[in-house]
Amino acid sequence: MNLKELYQEIILDHGKNPRNLRKTENFNKDAKGHNPLCGDKVHIYLKINENKKIEDISFEGQGCAISMASASIMTDLVKGKEEFEVKEIVSDFLDMIKEKDKLNNKILHDDDKTKLMCLSGVKQYPMRVKCATLSWHTLTSAINNSQEEINTESN
Amino acid sequence: MNLKELYQEIILDHGKNPRNLRKTENFNKDAKGHNPLCGDKVHIYLKINENKKIEDISFEGQGCAISMASASIMTDLVKGKEEFEVKEIVSDFLDMIKEKDKLNNKILHDDDKTKLMCLSGVKQYPMRVKCATLSWHTLTSAINNSQEEINTESN
Amino acid sequence: MNIIDIKKEFPIFNNKVQNNDLVYLDSANSSQKPLVVIDRIYDFYTKEFSNVGRSVHYLAVAATNLYENTRSSVQKYINAKEKDEIVFTKGATEAINLVASSFGHKYLKEGDEVLITELEHHSNYVPWHYLRKSIGIKIEFAEINQEGEVTIDEIKKKITPKTKIIALTHLSNVTGAILPIKEITQLAHSKGIPVLVDGCQSAPHMKLDMQDLDCDFYAISCHKMYGPTGLGILYAKKKWLEDLPPYQGGGGMINWVKKDDIGYGDLPNKYEAGTMATAQVIAFNESIKFIKKIGIENIAKHEEELIKYGEEILKKNNSVKLIGNPKKRGAVLSFTIDGIHPHDIATILDEDGVAIRAGHHCCQVLHDKLDLTASARASVGVYNTTEDFDKLNLSINKCKKIFNLK
Amino acid sequence: MNIIDIKKEFPIFNNKVQNNDLVYLDSANSSQKPLVVIDRIYDFYTKEFSNVGRSVHYLAVAATNLYENTRSSVQKYINAKEKDEIVFTKGATEAINLVASSFGHKYLKEGDEVLITELEHHSNYVPWHYLRKSIGIKIEFAEINQEGEVTIDEIKKKITPKTKIIALTHLSNVTGAILPIKEITQLAHSKGIPVLVDGCQSAPHMKLDMQDLDCDFYAISCHKMYGPTGLGILYAKKKWLEDLPPYQGGGGMINWVKKDDIGYGDLPNKYEAGTMATAQVIAFNESIKFIKKIGIENIAKHEEELIKYGEEILKKNNSVKLIGNPKKRGAVLSFTIDGIHPHDIATILDEDGVAIRAGHHCCQVLHDKLDLTASARASVGVYNTTEDFDKLNLSINKCKKIFNLK
Ligand SMILES: Cc1ncc(COP(=O)(O)O)c(C=O)c1O
Ligand SMILES: Cc1ncc(COP(=O)(O)O)c(C=O)c1O
User: Mutate which of D38, D54, D90 to test chain C, going by most C C-beta atoms within 10 A?
Assistant: First the structure.
């Protein structure tokens, strides 16, 4: 295991000073996520315009460095993207965390991918994978407006 | 262990042809006993006169050779005795089966004691002790007319 | 399949019991354990022990993975559709109590009927009796035929518009009858009735396929299946586990907890309250591997031959009366001897190292029906041989001699 | 008492965990097991295995005696008045569920109050919540004071004429507070209210005396007490066990069974339905012997010194905030570090072989009250040393460095 890989500077920075940690005014979609084991919570707010573009995204929540950094980086990356693009990014990220070596989507720039890959250190810490994926599952739920609260216990 | 001691001729005889296996007419006290583990059942009937003497005793029931022989020998021995004597015999017998080497009561004749000691072979078979004592516990219950059904599970 | 080699994997047979070789014919009560299972418990406690699910340190993560591996193995072994359909309990008894309580309190009301059979073990009767007492449901008994079987026709006859669940054994622990579960489930489902199967006696001896059987609930007892004591399994279709309320409440089964309300966790955590039998679950994976290594078909074939052999030898013994005569007899042979009570038989057999069970085998309703207070039962596992039945027969003859029977 | 010798009796410490010596500070979650206990399980399965209570053959008789011996040992160890007051369960969680269900359904009705505390583990809250849902009882929470304790005065304040049972922990698994159970029981009994004590955290660390405490119910978790997983104990006064209805139904707990009615068995069988955790019960006798050999007073003294040492060292660490400040702290030390989430702490500590727990420790109500989502917890057993706390502190400093804290 490699703590340095897990707690890279960028993770610590985003964990300490999360971007988009606020509540979007006039959000039109949202969802809550929760990890019952450790108590981590996240609430994602989306403002999607008529062209299905994410005009704004923000989140509120509490959690460990990994989960806060993950939410922070995620919100940064998907802002301005279109819904179908976001879905592809999310599933690419989840695949990467689960098993793949790298990100394969054609949407993100290489430097954004590099940022995201900083979260891959979590792969060596099975109990912490949930921390990294909570906000991503919750984003999917918000987009689908499925209203069901995301609960990483089962993921 | 010693099977020959357990299944002595006298036990086999009483087991096969139990004495007093009937229901006393005009009985004035009775009690039921039951061993839930093996299904053994016994119902004891007493006719006790105004002088507290056991005029008649009988039993109905089903069970293994040990339990039938024990009930048969017991009923034979206590018939005609007075209540206080019977109580002493019962407790002496139960003590013997539990821990003592011999019977100490002054009521029974030596040849009756010998008969009773035939049941002591059961001491080497802990799971079978209940078979030998069921009718004795039930007799106590009948004398006390406690109405509670004897259940050897806990004894 | 070489039985002698397999028997060597069970250390219990290395030691004499009261100077005799052990002839263990009490596997329907509980099976002996192969060394791989015992070793797994030992290794887990000596090198890897931690509680599961709750901590993030190395040992806890490893233990949690091992624990969940067993769940996956069980899922595959019984061909359940999803891993989440496997719930660990303390035994088959708890598994049935769970269903009776959770299903019963949600779906049963006064006058509703639960259909069980005369073959049922007390574990599949008492939990329903509780509902009879508390809710006022009725319990109907499908009756046995001359052979000690319960037929599909009998089930058909006993289903009424008020039947809300059918709960029945897969393999009788007394008559050895194997019930036509797949047909019964089809029939029941055609009338919208769920089916619970008590699989205690079938699981160690038959190939299990939940998706083929299509039953709603299936209860398994791990200690009868070459596994550790203190562990059982409830298989339940996901729709039921999602739909029914949880059973016991405690740590690990919640989602969120406030002073005024509580949200329950997802499957299968919802049904696994408190610290589970960690070591036992982890070791049970070895039981499954053990069975798979030999092949359940080979085990079944071996046991079938054994029981046929036992049946023949006992039929030739003029004092012995076999109980039940099912078309296909599972791994048990129950019998009585006129003139010798089953407890006396068991005691005398024990003197020769022959371990059988005597009593009502937790089936008093069945014994009442057969007009018996008790019976003797010889039951087999993968380690038994025809020689064991020879010894049984010899010892029975000794009983007869002691009791002066011919 | 020589801790190094005692530590040698726990084989887990012979192996490195990820190249580190194991610093096990997660005993409140589950304790490690001494070799005598592990060996007992091994020997039982390899040489003596049989199911208990049901068969009359030699192995079954021997196993039954061993099983009952543990019951006697437990009785003596906790100074219960009678052997029949000891009921084996699958865990403390089941023990509390049993009482909540059996007592609740017999004695509680809408509007009645159950008094618990803010310190309670979910295992001593969720089962009462079920009754809130099904019967409509109310659950009152005795509040903690500044130090994280629940005082007798607070209990007095929360008792009303509607209080029907008080259920509370003996030793908090988060703040380490030890509650004045004897005084609370006296107070409660003076008002005719029975008391259930969750003894999970106290049993491994304190001398227990049921007759002195005089509580009505006491729940114990054997795996936290150097015993096997999958086993718990419910102590209950005989009058309650006689009075209350049984919990689970199945084999072994009945007296007679007919198609239309069932009679339940005597104590303690009435509460032990189905095949019990035989091997675990038998092995737990060794746990008790192990504790008795060292002496619970010696264990308590050692752990007290340890906790005092840990408390001092952590108090000196400027970033660490201890949770609770009870007059006498039991074997747990919970804390937070401003700027580092407990899960990050636990992961970083784990890298050095330091195993602690992070989370809400199944006490969400308490964490809400303390305005925390999670905390870190170091807890000790007889095998811990002051060196373990030195290592903990070193690793905490490593966390701080990674997170750029001073
Ligand atoms: C205070 C307390 N109560 C109850 C429990 C539940 O015990 P178990 O999980 O062994 O059933 C625990 C341990 O998890 C505990 O610490
Ligand atoms: C047919 C049947 N059902 C249920 C049970 C109960 O299983 P357990 O005692 O393991 O809970 C048994 C075994 O005792 C059984 O044979």
Answer: D90
Cβ–ligand 2 distance for C200 under 6 Å, the answer yes
CA distances from B149 to B62, B66, B130, D64 (A): 16, 20, 15, 25
Q: What is the average per-residue pLDDT within D228-243?
A: 98
Catalytic residue among C200, C215, C362, C363: C362
CATH of region C3-26+295-402: 3.90.1150.10
Domain ranges of chain D: 3-26+295-402, 38-292
Q: Residue D15 has which token pair? A: 């192996």
Q: Whose CA is closest to atom 15 on ligand 2?
A: C200
Residue labelled with tokens 């407790």: B91
Contacts D92 to C, Cβ<8 Å: 274
CB distance D114 to D165 below 8 Å? yes
Backbone CA torsion sign across D85, D91, D96, D101: negative
Residue with tokens 């009483």: B14
pLDDT of residue A148: 62
Reference A70, options A143, A105, A119, A23; nearest CA is A119
In this prediction the ipTM stands at 0.94
| Ligand number with the minimum distance to the CA of D174 | 1
Q: What is the pLDDT of residues C84-103, one digit of tens each?
A: 999 999 999 999 999 999 99
Nearest Cα residue to C63 out of C78, C79, C51, C46: C51
Question: From the CA of D92, how far away is ligand 1's center (Å)?
Answer: 6
- Return all residues near D76 (Cβ < 8 A) that are at least 6 apart: none
Residues 6+ positions from A58 with CB-CB distance below 8 Å = A20, A21, A22, A23, A24, A27, A44, A45, A75
Token pair listed for B10: 């006298």
Residues with Cβ < 8 Å from C77, sequence gap 6 or more? C208, C288, C291, C292
Beta-strand pair C332-337/C320-322: antiparallel
Confidence (pLDDT) at A35: 82
Q: Which residue has the tokens 């689970």?
A: D248
Q: Tell me: pLDDT of B101 over 70.
A: yes
Identify the residue whose tokens are 């979007």. A24
- CA D244 / ligand 2 centre spacing (Å): 24
Other C-beta atoms lying within 10 Å of the C-beta of residue D160: 11
Sheet with D217-221: list strands edge to edge. D86-89, D232-236, D217-221, D195-198, D163-169, D113-117, D138-142
The predicted pLDDT at position B153 comes to: 46
A38-88 per-position pLDDT tens digit: 778 899 999 999 999 999 999 999 899 999 999 999 999 999 999 999 999
Which tokens hold the place of D249?
Answer: 């139904």
Q: What is the pTM assigned to this prediction?
A: 0.95
Task: Give the chains touching A; criterion: ≥3 Cβ pairs < 8 Å.
Answer: C, D
Closest CA to D277 of C223, C191, C371, C264: C223
Q: Position D215: which residue type?
A: C
Handedness of CA C31, C34, C37, C42 (dihedral sign): positive
pLDDT tens-place string over residues D3-14: 889 999 999 999
Beta strands (DSSP E) in C16-137 are 23-24, 86-89, 113-117
Half-sphere exposure of A67 (CA within 13 A, CB side): 32
What residue of D is the nearest CA neighbor of C89? D90
> Given 3.30.1070.10, 3.40.50.2300, 3.40.640.10, 3.40.50.2000, which CATH number is that of C38-292?
3.40.640.10
Residue D62 CB-density burial (10 A; 0-12 exposed, 13-18 middle, 19+ buried): middle
Q: Which chain A residues contact residue D403 at CB under 8 A?
A: 7, 12, 16, 65
Domains and CATH numbers, chain A: 3-146 (3.90.1010.10)
DSSP assignments along B67-135, one per residue:
HHHHHHHHHHHHTT-BHHHHHHHHHHHHHHHHT-SS---SSS-HHHHHHHHGGGGGGG-GGGHHHHHHH
